[in-house]
Amino acid sequence: MRCLNRIYEFFQKYFILILTTAVLAVKLLIVNIPSPSAPPEACMSMRGEGCGFIFDEAHYIPAVRKLMRGEAANNEHPPLAKFIIMAGMLLLGDGVGNAAGWRIFIAISGAISVMMVGLIAQEISSRKSVGYVASLLFATDVMSFNLSSIAMLDAPAMAFSLIAVYFALRKRYVLAGIFMGLSLLCKLSFLSILGPILVIVVAQSLRGWTKKLDKFPFLFKNLCKVFLITAAVFLLGLWLYDYTYNTFQTPFEHIAFMLNYHSKLKYTNPSEVDMPLSWINLISPFKPAPYYIETVKSDSAVYHPVAYWGIHSPVWWSIWFLIPIYVYKLVFNIRKNHAIFGEVLVLSWIAFTYLPYFPIAHILERWVFPFYFYATVPALAIGLCRFKEWGDWMTTLLIAVISAQLIWFFIWFPVKNDVYITILRLLNLPT
Question: For residue 64, is pLDDT > 70?
Fold first, then answer.
């Protein structure tokens, strides 16, 4: 009995680390699936037979190969994530039957993000156990798992931005600025994470003072630490790339090129676009996007041993009750003069990372995609985990979401062996 207690205490103490390690191990088990059957020379363009690309790997792997040759490529996106992919290819190689190099550091980035979501949750909660729940919910989000298993820009950008949020919560503003700059050097869309960081810095700088005006110089100093260092790291990284590859005269020219390029990505038919509301719509959700699907027919059965889907999860739909609950808690705490930091942070994170896509899609008529919701998922996971603090019925609701999330993840896990498929068939679940 004492031994079991010690094991339980160990798991309690190190659950986030154990989960992070388990997530990384699972990712590494499937990191080379699918792999190319064609040589790199035959796969230097977006599409090619036997290239083994999953989704936008068709953009980024050819771009990385060109960068390795000293040729500038994919300048419409910042360069850092592509160099992270390149590091894996230099370490593990790039050739027929070998895609591990493309994805190894992306998988590590995804595992780091799982850990950081839990640590952030612990920073804003009075209970350490909520961190376990937040990490678990984020780790089992299918879209998040898939994006952080393939050679795309999003996972490193997410990892760096979550580290920045964590350091901001710890009042390490210089480090927060450095990592936020690195995040933007991976992907510009993670600029939205500066929103919750702004909320954190303002709340911490003005907390506990009756005369707020006396604190504005202190606030200004802290904001400068974060935002000026973010800008400096981002601009320096762009300059180094442009200088090395002889592309743009200044990083500002490069930024103008990126903004101009993306401003032209407009749709002509709205029915072809998964609008932002469809990302969280329970009644009429967006159709799952087949990022990479292998189909096998056996007798009368059809199954998919490898199936990377761009798909929602129960955590996404939780936004419909999470926001009203958090608004209620916010109003209640204001009236009772209780702390409101956690509620404001979660609500602002959702607002900054999700709401901008409505005017972008509907007014600017820009293409948007459901995987853009990736930056919002940590806020939902962190928001849900705090239900443990708010009574039995809230805990019951949280358990229901966790159960649904685990079942959903089991069904849509991207790589399945024969045993896995047999279990799905016995349970009459999709294969």
Answer: yes
